Amino acid sequence: MFTIELGSKVKSNISGFTGIVTSRSEHMNGCNRYWVQPPVGADSKLPDGMWFDEGELEVVEAPALQRKNNDRGGPPSIRK
């Protein structure tokens, strides 16, 4: 179960890295990780994001946008 919502602005309490949570990953060992995307830089380039463990992040600001529904994207993959 994830404790941080997608779209939340977060900060690493170890490195100080800040950004928006754009993806989450749940692992079999119980570790939840979040992809944090920093804002566009002064040079108009998008810096690389990073994965962080859930316990390392603190929510700075709640998501500005909420999902409209639970649609997860395109059709499921078909294995043959």
Summarize the structure.
The chain has no helices and 5 strands.
Describe how the helices and strands are arranged:
Elements: E1 9-12, E2 18-26, E3 32-37, E4 50-53, E5 57-61
Structure explained in plain terms:
- This protein has a domain at 9-61.
- The protein is globular, with a radius of gyration of 14 Å.
- It has strands spanning 9-12, 18-26, 32-37, 50-53, 57-61.
- It has a five-stranded antiparallel beta sheet with strand order 4-3-2-1-5, with no helix packed on it.
- The chain has 80 residues and is mostly beta strands.
- The mean pLDDT is 88.
What are the salient characteristics of this protein?
35% strand; five-stranded antiparallel beta sheet; 5 strands; mainly beta; 80 residues
**CA distance, first residue to last residue:** 31 Å
Low-confidence stretches: none
Summarize the main sheet. 5 strands, antiparallel
Helical content band: under 10%
- Tally the beta strands: 5
Mean pLDDT: 88
- What is the overall silhouette? globular
CA radius of gyration:
14 Å
Strand content: 35-45%
| Order of strands, widest sheet | 4-3-2-1-5
Summarize the helix and strand pattern as letters.
Answer: EEEEE
Helical segment tally? 0
Structural class: mainly beta
